[in-house]
Records
---
Amino acid sequence: MNRIILGIVLLFLLIFPVFNLPYLNTFLIILFMYILLAESYDILGGYTGYINMGHIAFFGIGAYTFGLLWNTGLSLYLSFLAGTLAAVVFAILISFPLFRLQGAYFSLAAFALVKLMEHLTLNLSSITHGSDGLKVLEGNRMIPMYYLSLLLVVAVVVVSFLITRSRFGLAMASVREEEEIAFDFGVPVQRIKTTAMVISASFAGLMGSFYTWYTIFINPSMVFGTEMALMPIAMAMLGGSGVIIGPVIGAVFLLIVEETLWTRFAYLHTAAYGLVILLVGLFMPGGLVRLRPVRRFLIRVGLFKEL
Amino acid sequence: MEIAIQLVIAGILQGGLYALAAFGLSLIFGVSNVLNLAHGEFLMLGGLFCFLIFSATGLNPFLIGLMILPFAFFLGYIFDRFLMRPLAGKKEHIRLMSSILVTLGAALCIGDVTSFLAGAEEKGVDYSMPSFFWGDLYISYLRLLAMVMIAGLTVGIHYYLKKTYTGRALRATTQNIRGAMLVGVDTSRIRSVTFGIGSMLASIAGVFYVVLLSISPDMGLTVTIKYLCIIVLGGLGSLIGSLVGGVILGLTESIVSYYNPHWGQTAAFLILVLILLIRPKGLFGK
Amino acid sequence: MLEINGIEVFYGDYQALFGVEATVASAEIVSLLGANGAGKTTTINTICGFIRPRAGTIHFDNTIIHKMSANKIVEKGLIQIPEERMLFPDMTVLENLQMGAYLGRARKKLADSMDWVYGLFPILQKRQSQLAGTLSGGEQQMVAIGRGLMSLPRLLILDEPSLGLAPMLVAEVFQVIQKINQEGVAILLVEQNVHQSLKISNRAYLLENGSIAMEGRASELLDRDYIRESYLGI
């Protein structure tokens, strides 16, 4: 059942550009980006329980690294690779100090890193052009970007699926539930957390590179801004953190809500958007997918894979 | 030398202001384990109402600040009562996530409604007091007054927490919630009261903001993040921690900004990250 | 004074208590005995309002308390001294004791009860400005009992008061419990130290697998073969 559904959805998405609907195509690219960010956030946040409010830093670092290197004339593929690697290296570097922190300390210190990156990119204007932003070579990249981001979304979902079925995933869950006990039982806690962060960062970094390549122009607030940082996390939590399909549903839901509100209401769309997030948090703790009817449906079609 | 002293004074004032708002946030976190992302909105609302009443009546803005305190308390109280209390019984991890969603949603909502109703532009109260020279030092009465008030408030909070029964109950709830219940503390009420106090402190800080600096409806999340950083820097739940954390950040900003205005904020975050690397639980955390 | 009628308690689908019935009369010492996991702590947490029973009633002084919040139950004079002590680690001994007298009724008699507590545990007076978190285990237990007494209990529930204490201190704790009882405070004692607690109790209940397996006068239970074999190891 689940294979049929996923197959149909995937097939539809694969042939979608044929219909030549630029508006929806753009919408889907943005949607893929958010799904990827939410899902890759959840590899760390949902499975190990470390709420990484600094996830967007990986995205931004990927975006800037790609942009800067590609502008120097480096080949496209090497630039993508460099963007990803930069995010991974950053993840490894910060994982050692950050994972000494727990709970809210971890979340906030990670968030402070995003703000630090935002201010650094603003101020190191000789390299990053500061608030003027960074421009890269123009070109019409709608279709390749569509497929690249779709591919990446599929990849992150598959990776999440493989994680939930592996011993590694089990170890992550043990960190989330009872870190100290897991440590006493010989789970290499630090290595598990660092690995999770590296996987999570590599996807975000690559997506950051794609994003620069696609939008042609980035500035610090586009990639490191407060709302940009919080949205993927809100999406993952809203959809259902720790369930593979949760962040996907959260991203689809929130982006459709946002798009609808923006086109229907001239004023107060942010307020309405905030209200939706608030109500979900208040009445659906655990996210949309854990609502009883939704959950039952997802279990029946075999899409409720939880760690 | 005069410049150095001026900078230090400015930095301490800025830091005291930070500490004031940050401490409310820290209390809330201590008592209810909630990262209140809507805290900055309370600050903004305090400043905004001060601005509106000042524009209409021309009263002394600090007096207005005093008048709106009960309303600020009430706002914080009902915020907890209706938005936070339903989450109280949930599992730790779920509660942390739900509270992030609820307070983030509330922050977006309050900010946008405010900018719709009151206009999105920056607002400031144009209220001045004479200045004087003390030797070569240029001192503004307004800043001096603000400093004295902040110091007074800090001492006041300290005694409130040490000496009053409610203040002690608040600390008791932070240290061992089950223990607090066992001596008869109504911990749900204490949580709401703490939100009320947090909102009051934020609104006072908002009044200082609108008089000394300026406010705008979309400032909320930005300042909240800054205060969250300060309480992490100082150690969650510690009054002295918030104060020292605030002053360190304020001093860094004012001194670095003097040499290069753009780098003030950057340096502040850099210091924050560096301190956390050395002391993962903050300067005064346990 | 305390009447527990057929309470059933569940954790999710797992049933922890099966129709537990027990009473404590005023000025009595009653022991609640049983092995680890028999449901002792669940029983007292239900009495104190931390857990809601799915069925059954609990009355204290003829008022229903199983629907009250924990702090309201404390207000009625039913005080628990938990096994984990649950002190306020960053407060001084004095502040911890003062917190015991948080509620209005106890606040008025603060000075008298302070004298009472310092009379029972003179060492606490010497330690009064020390932070509770820095005390030894035995001293922490004294603060916990002292804090409970500051609330002016009419019924005091003690959960494993002798756990983890040196033998000398255990004897002292049992003496103190008797002294408290002589002041007219009813006591419900939850203990694994069966012999000692039966010796100071009037009556006792034995919990096994979530229900009362045996009850009676403490002196009788001490003589029963089953208790002697399974719990006293004689």
---
Amino acid sequence: MAKKLPKVDVVVVGVGWAGGIIASELTKKGLNVVGLEKGKERKTEDYFMVHDELRYALRYEMMQDLSKETITFRSNEKIRALPMRQYGSFLLGEGLGGSGVHWNGQTYRFLPYDFEIRTKTIERYGKNKIPAEMTLQDWGITYEEMEPYFDKFEKMAGISGEENPLAGKRSDQYPTPPMKKSPQLNMFEEAAKKLNYHPYILPSANLSETYTNPDGISRAACQYCGFCERFGCEYGAKADPVVTVIPVAKKTGKFEIRTHSYVRRVLKSGNKATGVLYTDLTTGEEIEQPADIVVLTSYVFNNVRLLLTSQIGRPYNPQTGTGVIGKNYAYQVMKGNATGFFEKEEFNNFAGAGALGMTIDDFNGDNFDHSDLKFIHGGSISITQTGHRPIQNNKVPEGTPTWGKEFKANSVKYANRTLSVGGQGSSMPFKHHYLDLDPTYKDAFGDPLMRITFDFEEQDRQLAVFLANKCSEIVKEMGADHVDSLKELGPYEITTYQSTHNTGGVIMGGDPDTSAVNNYLQMWDFENLFVVGAVNFPHNSGYNPTGTVGALAYRAADGIISYSQKGGILA
Amino acid sequence: MADETKQHEKENPESSSRRKFIKNSGFVLGGLAVGGILGNLLPAKDQDSNDPPPQEENETAESFTMALMYFTPEQYKIVEAATERIFPADDNGPGAKDLGVAFFIDHQLNGSWGLNAREYMQAPFFKGENVQGYQGRLNRREIFDIGLREMQNYSMTKYNKGFVELSEEDQDTILKDFEEDNVKLTTISASGFFKLLRGSTLEGAYCDPLYSGNRNMAGWKMRKYPGSQMAYTEIIEKGFEEIPPQSLRSHLGSHS
């Protein structure tokens, strides 16, 4: 029998960016919030020895322990899904701050096109441009409606950047000036301009200068130490929930965080959530936390899984295309890259910051004509200088053996003589790409694992090569002596790291028939249950998702506050 | 060696690099130190006499960590010889053997990595598609045990000699046959074992020396990688600069 605790106003499941933002906004308004986090407490002092590539990047120090919980994967419904036994394609975060602690800090706003993608695609190219199996949907919200929330997220995190000439209109400038420009960024900028593209410095959550945000939180400037992605920041310079929104929520005295608390079910009565059931991982005790409002803010897979195991919402049926929970799982096309090898020049490849880079959007969204192309959307193209740590960065020209004398000589020679330009390709939803409960494999508690059914489509294959060719053109213009680039995308495989930008499953929209939540991320059929994160994206754009997740979290906070006062479905 | 130590002291006096970093970083806002673990990085007193001794570079021959936690001496010898072929000594600098790669792998196997402790190892086990990744039931220790034994068997069958006794060319042939799955094994995948061996060789060559690999930071020096530095704000806008490497041990100074 579970121990039952006194009821609280709001319980938040997963304390990362979305959970932290919502907790800070709600507690500021006087609501009592309990945050349940399955991982451990985190603080900046943990990163005293963080410059350790083996421990953090290869042994996944900050990631979820897969022995307790993973996902299963199959390319299509004809084959048996098998567990992701080791990390590869994406990395699942765990602990206070979630994936928001070990991100790179690349902070974009999705394009106006993204939010109305179906309408705008049909407007320009006609209905036949969208393949029959592509379940493309508008988001039920416009860029104009999202803009104040983007602005709020950027000011809270102190995003450093400059105007992007091809993006949506901004109500204000970035709160801090752009990052420093390294020689390789200058080379990219020059080459891109020569090709008549529109380069801009990558919007960064690694602070360009000391900054005090509207909540009164002060943080120091980035030191370009080259350890961001997969690492925590020892300076607090990289915006993460632990050094921004969580202390703000705590200061109100109304936010209680319980770490090592693994939520197993959302409890319900009729069409309302009544709280959650969780296990205290330190004692094994089962605990019931009743609440007026339940907010799911874990990573994509856990949000979907909790709804399905709790039998909340209508599960997606890929045969009929009806139902919504698990629908429109999308990813990204990250392999459209080109690497240049330079015989004369050496670069400070070891230095950098997670979000030090330059980008063009000339081939992103609908910023270019797709009439003669066999794909829609596109991707951002960037050079990034994130710190080439030596175990994971051993680029050699194509044709070099992967081991032995020649490999060693070339990998050493080119360690500081390669520059890569990469496309971050968008990912469109398809009827047969979805999430559901695995029939065979279980987590440490005996609950079914999330099952991913996903593969690359013709859309993705076309896009990858298109982006790779554009990247190659830029690298050549930058003066590389030799350029290697992707020739063919191949199938989706789960073994090579691509991006931790998994999306969809509890998508937002304007119609309860085809979406799970409204544009306040409130469940259509469970009005006191909100689900917030990249899980809401009906498709994935050609950018890193965190900026948009942060904006959605602020939007949801507005909705939850309003619901706590008035109740009912928010419009 | 002695000369090298001296040079290291000269190029890399920790206290001065820390002071310089603090001066450059703009960490203090009107007397208010913000964020970060900077407080911990400051020496207790600003005196050179309080600084830790410079990292000893001459701990090669007598290092206490150069002993075995998992391998038998025979396994160790095979790993030492095989990894040296994967990452051989050349004009650039030492190979796997002198970098301590075999000790690194031995020490790693005696821990969570060797036991696949943080990976999903629950049944049922099925042979999957390549795109689904590793689906075996064996952990890395077991894979190494089997892989090394099979390398030795294959070597005896093909050349009538143990792997360690073979010429470099013949050792390469054996490794290549594993890499390309020309060796048919029943319990493990030959190419999977080779991939594991290659991956851990690079880890051992370039990890922090804390892990018994990358001995004397020679792997880093070879590719002009500066290891763990507090800040690159001074050089990020400039052309290439070679910086003497620093290991994690240098960060412990003010805490000891």
